[in-house]
Amino acid sequence: MNEPLKPDDIDAVIHERVRLSIVSALAVSPELSFNELKSMLGLTDGNLSAHSRTLEEAGYIVVDKTFQGRRPLTTMRLTAKGRKAFDRYLKSLRQIIERGTGEKG
Amino acid sequence: MNLKVDEAQARMEEIQRIMERATLFTLLPGTPAILGGLMVLAGCAVSYGMFRSLDFGDIVNVSVNQQVLFCLMWLAIGVVGIVMEVAWTTAAAKKQQLGPSDRPLRVAAFSLTPSVFVAVVLTAKFLLPVDARVWQMISTLKIVPLMPTAQEIQYIVPVWMMLYGTGVYTAGLFSIRPPRVLGLTFIAMGAIALLCVPQYGVLTAALSFGLLHIVFGVYILRHQRRVAR
Questions:
Q1: Contact residues on chain B for A94, CB-CB shorter than 8 A
Q2: Rounded to two decimals, what is the model's pTM?
Q3: B19 vs A contacts (CB less than 8 Å)
Q4: Where are the domains of chain B?
Q5: B18-29: per-residue pLDDT in tens?
């Protein structure tokens, strides 16, 4: 029953574990700062920077760099394209689970 | 890309966990924290006016009527504060289509309830010291005043600070850093208040439950407003 299933439109950009965490957090928050995401997901600066860049290049998130007083503030939010990709990814997971449950039954 | 059913299920659970954690942050009640803080500051000012001292232990030196008024005032501040937090959080959760039994709200409630319960029990114990004096009353059949000592009263604020801090810290474990920082600050301030300055309860209550709550509330509101723009 644990046979690998056929491709179900699994998006490789979102599928990576850290990037999936970033997108999941942004899916329920209109915007999160770099430090909030880092703390929430238990990531290092380098790790979060690298993966957020990949998501930004894919057009899934927007990274804004501003200043809060004198301190730099980096915030991220999900784009419409990113939300669509996340919804599609969730749909694919559900399909895989439903199909697996059907086979078991 | 091939994906096994088990892996898909694990991914779904992981997504759910992260979304709950992120949701908790947006549910943090900023406005009630500020209003609660202001109420505590007002309560501290009234207490200072009553005792002309920064020591809650001086309640033993005022009339019974004033003692009753003092207890009712702080009880009202506590009840109104809790009702405001619950109402605000529930309304925020409703906006996000979350019900009272959904995990983020249960996490917040279950994290805070045990420590608040312990604080209530300890407060009752400090205010109504059922000890040797009760046995003295029974054995001699004479009414003995059960007024607590000034020292017992002094313990109440630091105990609330530490236990409230513990609850907030625990709730923060499932969210992001600000609640954890608030919880740890309360614990540290409570420990210092208990060990070093228990006689300055009015001041430590004003600084922690008053000022610290206001600072926290302003921080949360500023963040949430920036996010909502």
A1: 12
A2: 0.69
A3: 24-25, 27-28
A4: 32-228
A5: 887 777 766 778
